[in-house]
Structure formats: structure tokens, C-alpha cells
């Protein structure tokens, strides 16, 4: 799908991943005229500009996490300890998140964030809307949680790793087929997000359980069957599942992506508009960026102008 865009495809960018990646990989001494750090902003802007030139997407949804340590999120309301193991985001990173969103708007691209819902939920909601309209989804991310959204015809694109996973690749890559990824994570837990799991159930065991039982409900309705499975410590695993049933179901409420975020945006809002080159020039001047991003912006604007002219003709 590289090069010219394929009709009927919606690309969903997990923006927070790329902002974090830039923050920790770009030289931290990049600053503007006032001494404010700009390395995450620059890295994200380069990524997005490269992406736009390579893909020329027909529709693009860019989702950000509203707050890096939100106490208003839907999952925190369910489980107050959710992500409580994470340190507060550095002030310079939080500031650059806002600037990355501003850059998207100057580029004419739809960006979204919510104080209550995570970027994953925004992507999940727009993915379902796109699929209902008969469109294909490409998830641009490295976050395993988003693999649960992939369906036949879709793709999970690890852009940084230069590899794509399609529906039938997900099981081998993440341990379970897309429809079972949320159950898989509920059983194993997720230390990154501080989500508890069932003690004694690792990735291999969770994968085997998800391959045998179609849902978490079916698994718990057949715990006697678990003890008969040909896996090491089957009886012990069944006992642990029983003892930690409430934990598993709590975790499942956290690992599943909410696909019903109330959003006024339509699929047509995901159509890229030509970049505002004058606003971008001022933006680049303000943050001390040189010629590379300016040249890319001009090329992207030129391509958008040609595409717009062709559509009119």
C-alpha cells in the first residue's frame, strides 16, 4: 500500500507512540529561540511528513492521548490503579504534545483527543465506522493492544519497524487472533498499563486457552475442561483461574478497546486538506526548524493541489 493511496483505505495513526519515540530518540538539545525543547515536535513532524509523502492517504485519522497521566479516563474510573505505575510526564514532553497536534492542523489533517477516552478508543471508534462503510483500515502503530481491531483485509503497520501484519499474521505475532487479543491480555495482565492478570498464566498458556475457548465466558464455564488440557500444570492453572475470576473480568474491562466514543467527526472529515503553507512557515520560524520540513510541506501542498484539480476536472 505504499506509494499512491488505495481507494477505500483509512489510515489510523497512533500519534502518541510516535511522539514518545521522537522524544527519546532525537537529540534533547534541540530548542527554539526561547530555549524550549523541540526535539519531540521535530521528530514527529518528520515522521508525519515522510508518511504523507510516501502514502498520500485518501483518509487519515490521527489520534492523541489527551493527557499522559489522566485521572479522568474511563479506565481509571473502572480501576483507579490503571497506569498508576507510570511517572508523571516531563513538562517539556506535555508541551510538545500540544504542538504536535497544532502541526497536524496546519498540515490540513484531522487530529483527535479526548479527556475521557484514550487514543486507542478513538481509533477503535473510527475503525468500526470505516468498516461499516465498507472501507479497509490500516493501523499505523506498534501498540499490541490495537491489534484487536484488525479484521480480514485490514493491516497492522509497524511503520518504524517497516513491517505489516495482516489478519492471519496477528496470532503468531501477538499470541492470539485479533478477536481474542483483549482476552489474552486480560489473562496475562499488562505490566505497562498496570493491569493485573491471572497468576501462573503466561503468554504461552493464555494463547493455548484462547485457541481452545472462544470467549472468556466460555473459558470460565469449562474450568473442568481446562484441568484436562494437555498443558503443563493444567490443574493448577484451572485452580488459579477460579481463584482469580474477578481479576480476569476486571482486566477484561480494561484491555478491550471502546469503539463507541461519541464523536461528531465523519469519515469525510478524515479527507486531508491542502497544508496551510503560510501558517507552517510561521510555525517553523517560531520553533527554529530549517529547510527539510519546509520543502516537504511545499511538496505535499503541491501534490494536494494537483489531486484537488484532478478531482474537479
Alpha carbon gap, first and last residue:
26 Å
- Can you summarize the main beta sheet? 6 strands, mixed
CATH superfamily of the largest domain: 5'-nuclease
Strand order of the largest sheet: 3-2-1-4-5-6
Taking all Cα atoms into account, the compactness measure Rg is 21 Å
> What's the β-strand tally?
6
Q: In CATH, what is the class of the largest domain?
A: Alpha Beta
Residues in helix, %: 40-55%
What is this structure's SSE topology?
Layout: E1 9-14, H1 15-25, H2 39-55, E2 59-63, H3 74-78, H4 91-106, E3 111-112, H5 119-132, E4 136-140, E5 155-158, E6 163-166, H6 170-174, H7 181-188, H8 203-212, H9 216-221, H10 223-227, H11 234-243, H12 245-255, H13 277-287, H14 291-312
Parallel strand pairs: 1-2, 1-4, 2-3, 4-5
Antiparallel strand pairs: 5-6
Amino acid at each position: 500500500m505504499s506509494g499512491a493511496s488505495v481507494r477505500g483505505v483509512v489510515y489510523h495513526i497512533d500519534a502518541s507512540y510516535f511522539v514518545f519515540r521522537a522524544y527519546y530518540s532525537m537529540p534533547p538539545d534541540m530548542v527554539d529561540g526561547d530555549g524550549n525543547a523541540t526535539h519531540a515536535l521535530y521528530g514527529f513532524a518528520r515522521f508525519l511528513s515522510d508518511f504523507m509523502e510516501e502514502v498520500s492517504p485518501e483518509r487519515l485519522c490521527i489520534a492523541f492521548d489527551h493527557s499522559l497521566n489522566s485521572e479522568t479516563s474511563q479506565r481509571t474510573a473502572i480501576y483507579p490503579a490503571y497506569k498508576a505505575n507510570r511517572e508523571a510526564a516531563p513538562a517539556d514532553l506535555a508541551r510538545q504534545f500540544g504542538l504536535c497536534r497544532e502541526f497536524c492542523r496546519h498540515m490540513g489533517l484531522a487530529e483527535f483527543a479526548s479527556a475521557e477516552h484514550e487514543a486507542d478508543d478513538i481509533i477503535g471508534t473510527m475503525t468500526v465506522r470505516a468498516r461499516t462503510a465498507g472501507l479497509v483500515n490500516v493501523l499505523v502503530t506498534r501498540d499490541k493492544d490495537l491489534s484487536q481491531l484488525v479484521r480480514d483485509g485490514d493491516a497492522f503497520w509497524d511503520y518504524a519497524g517497516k513491517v505489516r501484519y495482516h489478519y492471519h499474521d496477528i496470532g503468531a505475532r501477538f499470541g492470539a487472533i485479533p478477536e481474542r487479543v483483549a482476552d489474552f491480555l486480560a489473562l496475562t495482565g499488562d505490566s505497562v498499563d498496570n493491569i493485573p492478570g491471572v497468576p501462573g498464566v503466561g503468554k504461552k498458556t493464555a494463547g493455548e486457552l484462547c485457541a481452545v475457548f472462544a470467549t472468556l465466558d466460555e473459558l470460565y464455564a469449562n474450568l473442568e475442561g481446562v484441568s484436562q488440557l494437555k498443558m503443563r500444570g493444567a490443574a493448577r492453572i484451572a485452580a488459579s483461574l477460579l481463584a482469580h475470576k474477578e481479576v480476569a473480568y476486571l482486566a477484561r474491562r480494561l484491555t478491550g478497546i471502546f469503539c463507541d466514543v461519541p464523536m461528531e467527526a465523519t469519515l469525510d472529515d478524515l479527507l486531508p486538506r491542502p497544508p496551510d503553507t503560510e501558517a507552517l512557515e510561521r510555525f517553523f520560524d517560531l520553533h527554529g526548524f530549517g529547510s527539510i520540513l519546509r520543502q516537504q510541506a511545499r511538496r505535499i501542498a503541491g501534490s494536494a493541489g494537483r489531486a484537488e484539480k484532478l478531482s474537479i476536472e
